Amino acid sequence: QVQLVESGGGLVQAGDSLRLSCAASGRTFSSRPMGWFRQAPGKEREFVAAITWTGSSTAYADSVRGRFTISRDNAKNTVYLQMNSLKPEDTAVYYCAASRSYSLRTRDYDNWGQGTQVTVSS
């Protein structure tokens, strides 16, 4: 079982950048695909980005493509989400999650972090 802890959230202005980190414990981290999801109040959790266990392939939601970048450092057991040109509609709780296979679907992820709040003011 992999334990995940997100950090790096905060309050920023529109157009600013923010880097989220997800620290993982467990020796199986390097073999598991990872994803970032977000959930705004009153809305369902939605896919943001995913990355294969090797980092060779990535996927992004249309709403963040070109602005966000997912990456991982398996030696540090950490996955990152670099967020640039932030918009007020990016405001949400951001979660990292681990999956048994590369996927863009929420239901395919079986291990979740506690989430970190990102608030973007206009």
Brief overview, please?
Helices cover 0% and strands 51% of the residues. It contains no helices and 11 strands.
Question: How are the secondary structure elements laid out?
Answer:
Elements: E1 3-7, E2 10-13, E3 18-25, E4 34-39, E5 46-51, E6 58-60, E7 68-73, E8 78-83, E9 92-99, E10 109-112, E11 116-121
Parallel strand pairs: 2-11
Antiparallel strand pairs: 1-3, 3-8, 4-5, 4-9, 5-6, 7-8, 9-10, 9-11
For the largest beta-sheet, the strand count, sense and barrel status come to: 7 strands, mixed
Q: Termini separation (Å)?
A: 40 Å
The proportion of residues forming helix, as a percent range, comes to under 10%
Quaternary structure state of the chains depicted: single chain
List low-pLDDT spans: none
Number of strands: 11
Portion in beta strands? over 45%
Order of helices and strands: EEEEEEEEEEE
Backbone structural class: mainly beta
Task: Describe, in plain words, how this protein is organized in 3D.
The termini are far apart. β5 (46-51) and β6 (58-60) form a beta hairpin. The protein is globular and about 40 Å long. The chain is mainly beta. The chain has strands at residues 3-7, 10-13, 18-25, 34-39, 46-51, 58-60, 68-73, 78-83, 92-99, 109-112, 116-121. The strands form 2 sheets. Strands 2, 4, 5, 6, 9, 10 and 11 form a 7-stranded mixed β-sheet that branches. A 4-stranded antiparallel β-sheet has the order 1-3-8-7, with no helix packed on it. The chain is built from no helices and 11 strands.
